[in-house]
Protein 1
Amino acid sequence: MHSKVKFWAGTLALSAALGLVSSRTAQAGPFDGVFGKVLKVGGIGFLVKQFGPEMNKVINTLLQQKGIRYAGRTKVVPAFAIGSGAYVGAVQLQGDEGPIDKAKYCAQLEIPVGRFRGKMYVPVNSLTPGKAKLKPIQGVGVAAVIDFRI
Amino acid sequence: MSKKNLYLTAALTGLLVVGGAWQGTMRPALAEKELVTSRDARVDGKTVGEVLLKGKVALRFLSGAGSLSTIERADLVAGRLNRLDEDKSLKASELRVKSAGGLAILTARGMDIVTVTAEDGKTLGLSAQDTADLWVQNLSDALAGREVSEAALRGKPSARLAAAREDDRDRDDRGKDRAGDRDVKSAADDDFYPDLKKKIVPIISAGSSLNIGVAQVQGEERDVDRCKAVAQLETDWKDKARIKILVPISAESVKHIDRVPGVAVSAIADYKIQD
């Protein structure tokens, strides 16, 4: 019980700090900017990891209301986008039960060329190449994306 | 008994007789159409439940699970396999083993077919995981029309499965750990992933801007064939946050959006036609 309270207090404090730093980043100096960005990436990644299942439920409920909910297995994982700026956020993945369980993150590569843009979604099983065999997960795709500019 | 009651009883008796006769004549015909059937049998003095594929014994339950008896488990498995086969012909490559909470679960097309308990393994002298692999092998053999030997039903893996297991162990010894991959691995199929079809379809994005282009979708062949386009709804907030929803649809019309399940978007290339 005590550890649960501690956990929620920590999460709330992190969220508050994240919001504070993010809102001030634009006006702050370069050091604060870097600090803010690091905190933003780490914080959003942590929050998505922690509250992925809840976010998944919310997305599914919203899509259900519009009648376009995906019928199969879905999962929300942290996502990182590079190309047209850097973004961090959450991605709702969909796919077969086996492969989707393996997907832990989603990398987005974006290539903007004038009015053209190319995007590739690569669900991966890990972000630490040395520790686990980093490889793209086949059979898993993207259903929804929400991300924030770093 | 009044005359009315007598006629009623006679009519009901007649219906029962005709119904019974119809069942007797029709059931074998219906059963012939079903890929999987179940029955109870006596093995070593014990009542066991057997699952038959194309009339040949493919699985044998020597122990019950929870409140289910051996024959009830066999019925359940037969029913589930038949339901899958009704949708689309069941293939051996679709049978998989996944691990969940220390249990091994035999699945096909994402549907749980049967949970292999520790007791199942114990009766065959195997671990639950090895029992699940063996059952997949037996079902695969039966689907391919091969006879499942009595030894295989009693827990002795075929030479092919034993060799595959030995190969796995060798790889583990060499540091190429495949333990993490085991939950989606089919014992009958060396391919790690099911056969996926990829296709390029038109995509239209609406929201913060209007874009048209192409998207790569992937999934099982029948689902991908149904997918005709992708609709993307996207919006952003002061260039700081973005929200996108990708919906593979079966009709190239935005008036009636019919989402295609089982299809996922993996890449997009589009052109902005309106800000």
Protein 2
Amino acid sequence: MTITKDDIIAMLNEDMRGEHMAIVQYLLHAYAMPESAIPAEIEAIARDEMRHFDWLADAIVELGGTPTLERAPVRRADTHAANMQLDVTAEDDAIALYEQHIAAIDDPKLKRLLERIVNDEKAHRGIFLKLAEEVSAEAEPQPAEASPSSPDPVALDVLDKGIRHEYTVILQYLWHSFVTPHCDISRELEMQAINEMQHLGWLAEEMAGIGGPVEIERTAVNQSADTAAMLAADIRAEREVTQVYSEQLNKIADEGLKALIARIRDHEVYHDAVFSDLLQSLQKASEKAPSPTKGFTVGSLKE
Amino acid sequence: MSDLLMREEAPLTSEEWVKLDSLVVEVARKTLAGRRFLHLFGPLGAGVQVVPVDRLGGVTGAAVGFEGEEAEAVELAEREFIPLTTISKEFVLRWEDLALARQHSGEVDFSPAAAAAFTVARAEDALLFNGQAREPGLLKAKGRTTVPLGEWETTPGAALEAVLSAWSKLTAAGFAGDFALVLSNHLFAKLHRVNGGTGVLEIAQIRELVKTVVPTPALKPNQAFLVAAGPENLDLAIGQDIITAYLGPDGMDHVFRVFESLALRVKRPGAICTFE
């Protein structure tokens, strides 16, 4: 059977859904753990999966496709050990799927990419197996131990909204970086997405720290194909969240959380400036290249 | 329309594009002959590929009267759709020249663009005068009027006689006003001689009759025609006027294309009188 370009795009999008799930699942499992070397190791794996997500999206765009923002279902268990087992299973599933796709795809460049990714997944599987043993050897903390008193509802609301916003803009900036044909803008969008990932981590760890539920879900993501429209949407998102964070600062009692939100808010102000500069440069660039396809250039020479 | 000309991808600044455009237009304006007498129709847009041309019938009288008497409508002998022809010439800006201009804040040498604009302009005139496979040009238009060239080359006064003869024939057929005499540089040179004992150059006498005289190297040495050049008789339909697009890099060099799309629309071929 001949594999068409659309088939390959569909396979790569299926792989992206899996990577997307793995990123979120591993982060949730890591945030649920107390600070130690183990969650740091899991977060490092999640960063590997982010790179895979990025490579797959680039490959899809190169083939003329549109990268998906859907994700496979995230699974969570009651204990850290069970979470590690779920992560081993996720890696097993990913390895099996990648191997199917490697066998089906003829393009040597894509084959190499998928082989490169599957090697990572095999290594991750080994790490998760080891971590499963390590966490099994430790006593599982009870939820009550982690949060002796009931969490402040204002803090819960601030953190939940923050996590939702950060996750949404990570996906939005990444998707824009995949799709825009402007390399410099793509690079900058990716940089700001990485910064938003840091915010997501801070907020999720804070949420886990106060015993709140960490849910990584998104709102609507702007998927404009026009770079100027993308940047305008990104600027809007930054301005809206800056306002929200500024208003929340007046309501937060905890000084530590207040300092964290103020720090993130200041980053968002910086992102707004970065995106505004990019939009301005883009508009200047389009002015730079006049495109007189309307009206006469030489016109009539009659006297 | 997205950036059809792909100018954003080119390694040129806004100011450099303005200079390049000005140079291309300036060279084209200096070179083109057909546009000195043809009415322009358009521009219709870069994507337009065909244009209608109405082959009109003869000249008929209008109705005159108090009651709006009935008169014949202008007879539309036939309507055809003719393709617009694209004329193009590519040129290359070498990376060394661009690098030199950047290093020394100097100007980019756009002479290759000027050469391409010249080639396109000459090709436009060649197309208008001589036509191409499917479309005859002005010199070969089917149904055109003809008069003998006579002794234009050798005898003073013969050119004036030939032009008078053509003018008489066209006006007698009902074509009026907006006459243009289009001729080779060789025949134009011959007009700069005193006509017999009049003490006046032939060109001066011809200009009394025909305001627009267009010498052009696009015609062969013994070629000339007189035309009643109003848009009711013929015009030049422009899809995309002469413009420069960026094609992309070729190794380290950069390739551009000067191009246009156009079609000559001869509606009343009898308005053209060739000297043969």
